């Protein structure tokens, strides 16, 4: 029986954190003072449902709710509302021990019934939202007593995938589960005071919070800015203490001006998405040429101010499938690209018979698309940019109405098959590539990763195989990781906690 | 023909006599020549050099470089092509459609006038920028679409001015005489009245040209103008604003060129209006646009 307890992982996590992120983690919490923390954000939150996780809600969720378990920035699990989790030897179930003495904001005690209600919501195709796909591995669940929950799986599930599920589950108060979109119903360190839609959100410290000496600041005020430059100016003028989720370019500038910048371990990866059911992209050699047509260093520099890493695979460094060697093997090389295009056997007319779809609302996408356009021009392939704005672009992207386009993918630091939650990487019902999936080797590679619940060698072989298949099929060409949820803080702020998903965690933040 | 040339020559002479108009004309001439001969100049507006991005103005790059390391001066020069082509195209479209509508409405009066003018009122009621954006949404994002959108937005101006001119002229003796000699409605409208109504229409053409350049830039600034990498002043302003801290000249210099172009057109338009309104005569008794 594999037992992953607080002692095992907490110690390892703390040791690693101490080495690499001493300045970033809440080690100095005792010396920090409370007060009113003013945070500039660039998006209005959609609602308070923790199962509708999107970047617009990133600043709120971890302040109103707690996960069953947490990850350290290095990806090590540690207890939260679940104090222990025991994975069965056959990896077909996990049993959780729940923390005692915790209450929801309403005063309701946190017990097994709330975890069951949360699982029930997540498994509901209408109410489960972002959690629903992750729940596909779950068969059923039970609660032998108020402090214990057992989740059963349909088949043996890799350990990391089980942990991802537990980390993704944020218990909701059963009494408030039906109104959770409008009224927060968590156990989190802050409670809602007031929301002025489009302007601000005010929270105050939860007096019954279960983590000792947290939260540090008593009042937490988020102010919504529509312009990145305005948020930066507010920080520089002292009107706010932190800018959350601003642009990489502003972060670099503010860092040079003496502000603190914190980048979490959960970046996005920019992917040149190829619709392999259209035109010249049906040809594998032609697609493979794009592995070498991406001037990744320029894309990272121009699009993201150099904040991130060039990648040839859709993984963040924290991902267990991350393999840096691919960056060199599939580096920018126009000669190699030309050879592959020549090997494709396509005519000169065929290879230029497509347009590059561009999200005109996103300046980074416009710039990096022009870099690719320039690279293509250099090898004699003139292509036009098909600029579309906002909803028009999203409709084309999610409907597969494009030949090629840039689009970021998330969940790149977690269990590798989670990448299949992104539309271009879906193994079934893929809105771009349609059914039956035109790349059965890729589908089989994802299935192999999901089934690799044995030893480390088996798991590594499955990851290696997936990586190899991804660059071979070449329907998604990753170019770089970049930061989402960047935190830029004044020098009087301390105790920043880096969340694995780059969500904003205010409970450890205080004033120096 | 000789008479028309003589009139133009006189008009030019009087324009040049006004300092503001002369300066404006000189600047516009410079922009137009640069745009016309851009291909023979040693500039490539599309050549990227990311390693040399966001450089300040220098001897090598007079206006500096943009985020992709492209020469901003080259893009300003080629952007002038986009702006001037849009201006000329929009004026032609607006004049070709708006003037006949105005002539017919003013000439016939009655229900035809009401019908045509209500249609024009509907067009006039639509905010230019909104109408242009809607049209681009239908036609797709291209220079042609921007040109048509701006052109259609300019129709009401020409129609209303043409109508007003016809209504003022149609009862005058020289028109009555032509009618008496059996001139057809078409002949009277286009050969008799129109030549005598040209002056305000020329002014309107210049005003629309400046509006067209500004509207094209606004559309590009909003992200619905000419698609990149085709240079456009509005697109440069849109992108340059993101780099105001790192490279202020990126947005400022194209903005200055755009402002000076609009200012030049407006100054010329105002000068023309003043000259034609007064129907000035010089010592020799020559007239520019008066009725003959």
UniProtKB/TrEMBL annotation, chain A:
<keyword id="KW-0732">Signal</keyword>
<dbReference type="InterPro" id="IPR006311">
    <property type="entry name" value="TAT_signal"/>
</dbReference>
<feature type="signal peptide">
    <location>
        <begin position="1"/>
        <end position="29"/>
    </location>
</feature>
<keyword id="KW-0813">Transport</keyword>
<dbReference type="Pfam" id="PF00496">
    <property type="entry name" value="SBP_bac_5"/>
</dbReference>
<comment type="similarity">
    <text>Belongs to the bacterial solute-binding protein 5 family.</text>
</comment>
<dbReference type="InterPro" id="IPR000914">
    <property type="entry name" value="SBP_5_dom"/>
</dbReference>
<feature type="domain" description="Solute-binding protein family 5">
    <location>
        <begin position="76"/>
        <end position="412"/>
    </location>
</feature>
<dbReference type="InterPro" id="IPR039424">
    <property type="entry name" value="SBP_5"/>
</dbReference>
<protein>
    <submittedName>
        <fullName>Peptide/nickel transport system substrate-binding protein/glutathione transport system substrate-binding protein</fullName>
    </submittedName>
</protein>
TrEMBL record, chain B:
<feature type="transmembrane region" description="Helical">
    <location>
        <begin position="201"/>
        <end position="227"/>
    </location>
</feature>
<keyword id="KW-1003">Cell membrane</keyword>
<keyword id="KW-0813">Transport</keyword>
<dbReference type="Pfam" id="PF12911">
    <property type="entry name" value="OppC_N"/>
</dbReference>
<dbReference type="InterPro" id="IPR035906">
    <property type="entry name" value="MetI-like_sf"/>
</dbReference>
<feature type="transmembrane region" description="Helical">
    <location>
        <begin position="84"/>
        <end position="108"/>
    </location>
</feature>
<feature type="transmembrane region" description="Helical">
    <location>
        <begin position="247"/>
        <end position="268"/>
    </location>
</feature>
<keyword id="KW-0472">Membrane</keyword>
<feature type="domain" description="ABC transmembrane type-1">
    <location>
        <begin position="80"/>
        <end position="269"/>
    </location>
</feature>
<feature type="transmembrane region" description="Helical">
    <location>
        <begin position="145"/>
        <end position="162"/>
    </location>
</feature>
<keyword id="KW-0812">Transmembrane</keyword>
<comment type="similarity">
    <text>Belongs to the binding-protein-dependent transport system permease family.</text>
</comment>
<protein>
    <submittedName>
        <fullName>Peptide/nickel transport system permease protein</fullName>
    </submittedName>
</protein>
<dbReference type="InterPro" id="IPR000515">
    <property type="entry name" value="MetI-like"/>
</dbReference>
<feature type="transmembrane region" description="Helical">
    <location>
        <begin position="120"/>
        <end position="139"/>
    </location>
</feature>
<dbReference type="InterPro" id="IPR050366">
    <property type="entry name" value="BP-dependent_transpt_permease"/>
</dbReference>
<dbReference type="InterPro" id="IPR025966">
    <property type="entry name" value="OppC_N"/>
</dbReference>
<feature type="transmembrane region" description="Helical">
    <location>
        <begin position="21"/>
        <end position="43"/>
    </location>
</feature>
<dbReference type="Pfam" id="PF00528">
    <property type="entry name" value="BPD_transp_1"/>
</dbReference>
<keyword id="KW-1133">Transmembrane helix</keyword>
């Amino acid at each position: 029986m594999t037992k992953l307890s607080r002692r095992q992982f907490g110690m390892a996590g703390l040791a690693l954190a101490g080495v690499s992120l001493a300045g970033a983690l809440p080690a100095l919490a005792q010396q920090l003072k409370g007060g009113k923390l003013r945070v500039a954000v660039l998006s209005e939150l959609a609602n308070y449902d923790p199962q509708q996780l999107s970047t617009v809600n990133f600043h709120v969720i971890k302040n109103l709710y707690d996960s069953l378990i947490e990850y350290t920035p290095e990806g090590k699990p540690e207890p939260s509302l679940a104090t222990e989790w025991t994975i069965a030897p056959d990896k077909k179930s996990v049993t959780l021990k729940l923390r005692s003495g915790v209450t929801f904001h309403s005063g309701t005690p946190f017990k097994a019934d709330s975890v069951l209600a949360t699982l029930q919501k997540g498994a509901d195709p209408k109410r489960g939202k972002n959690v629903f796909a992750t729940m596909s591995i779950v068969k059923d669940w039970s609660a032998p007593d108020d402090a214990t929950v057992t989740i059963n799986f349909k088949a043996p599930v890799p350990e990391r995938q089980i942990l991802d599920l537990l980390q993704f589950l944020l218990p909701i108060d059963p009494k408030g589960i039906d109104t959770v979109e409008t009224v927060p119903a968590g156990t989190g360190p802050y409670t809602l005071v007031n929301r002025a839609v489009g302007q601000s959100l005010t929270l105050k410290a939860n007096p019954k919070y279960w983590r000792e000496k947290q939260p540090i600041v008593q009042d937490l005020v988020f102010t919504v800015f529509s312009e990145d430059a305005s948020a930066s100016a507010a920080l520089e003028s002292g009107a706010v203490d932190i800018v959350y989720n601003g642009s990489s370019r502003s972060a670099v500038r503010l860092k040079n001006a003496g502000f603190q910048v914190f980048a979490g371990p959960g970046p996005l990866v920019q992917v040149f998405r190829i619709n392999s059911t259209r035109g010249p992209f049906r040809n594998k050699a032609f697609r493979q040429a794009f592995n070498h047509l991406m001037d990744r260093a320029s894309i990272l520099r121009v699009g993201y101010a150099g904040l991130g890493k060039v990648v040839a695979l859709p993984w963040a460094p924290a991902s267990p499938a991350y393999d840096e060697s691919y960056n060199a093997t599939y580096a920018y090389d126009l000669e190699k690209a030309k050879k592959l295009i020549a090997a494709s056997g396509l005519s000169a007319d065929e290879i230029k018979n497509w347009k590059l779809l561009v999200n005109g609302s996103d300046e980074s996408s416009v710039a990096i698309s022009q870099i690719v356009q320039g690279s293509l021009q250099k090898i004699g392939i003139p292509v036009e940019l098909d600029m579309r704005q906002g909803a028009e672009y999203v409709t084309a992207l999610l409907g597969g109405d494009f030949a090629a386009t840039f689009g970021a993918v998330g969940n790149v630091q977690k269990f590798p098959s989670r990448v299949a939650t992104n539309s271009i990487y879906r193994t079934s019902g893929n809105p771009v590539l349609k059914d039956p999936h035109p790349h059965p080797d890729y589908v089989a590679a994802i299935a192999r990763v999901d089934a690799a619940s044995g030893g480390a060698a088996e798991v590594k072989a499955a990851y290696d195989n997936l990586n190899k298949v991804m660059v071979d099929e070449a329907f998604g060409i990753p170019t770089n990781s970049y930061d989402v949820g960047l935190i830029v803080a004044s020098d009087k702020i301390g105790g920043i906690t880096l969340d694995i998903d780059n969500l904003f965690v205010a409970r450890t933040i205080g004033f120096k | 023909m000789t008479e028309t040339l003589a009139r133009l020559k006189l008009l030019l002479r009087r324009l040049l006599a006004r300092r503001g108009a002369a300066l404006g004309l000189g600047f516009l001439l410079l922009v137009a020549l640069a745009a016309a001969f851009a291909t023979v100049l040693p500039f490539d507006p599309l050549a990227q050099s990311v390693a040399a991005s966001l450089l300040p103005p220098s001897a090598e790059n007079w206006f500096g470089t943009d985020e992709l390391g492209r020469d901003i001066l080259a893009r300003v020069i080629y952007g002038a092509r986009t702006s001037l082509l849009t201006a000329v195209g929009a004026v032609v479209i607006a004049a070709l459609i708006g003037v006949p509508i105005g002539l017919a409405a003013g000439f016939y009066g009655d229900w035809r006038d009401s019908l045509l003018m209500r249609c024009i009122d509907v067009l006039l009621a639509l905010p230019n920028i909104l109408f242009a954006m809607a049209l681009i949404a239908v036609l797709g994002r291209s220079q042609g679409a921007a040109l048509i959108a701006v052109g259609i937005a300019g129709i009401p101006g020409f129609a209303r001015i043409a109508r007003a001119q016809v209504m003022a002229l149609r009862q005058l003796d020289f028109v009555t005489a032509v009618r008496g000699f059996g001139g057809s409605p078409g002949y009277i409208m286009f050969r008799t009245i129109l030549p005598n109504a040209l002056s305000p229409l020329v002014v309107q053409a210049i005003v629309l040209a400046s509006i067209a350049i500004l509207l094209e830039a606004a559309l590009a600034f909003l992200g619905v103008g000419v698609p990149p990498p085709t240079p456009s002043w509005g697109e440069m302003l849109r992108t340059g604003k993101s780099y105001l801290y790192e490279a202020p000249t990126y947005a400022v210099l194209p903005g200055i060129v755009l402002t000076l172009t609009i200012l030049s057109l407006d100054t010329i338009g105002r000068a023309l209006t003043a000259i034609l309104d007064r129907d000035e005569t010089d010592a020799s008794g020559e007239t520019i646009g008066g009725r003959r």
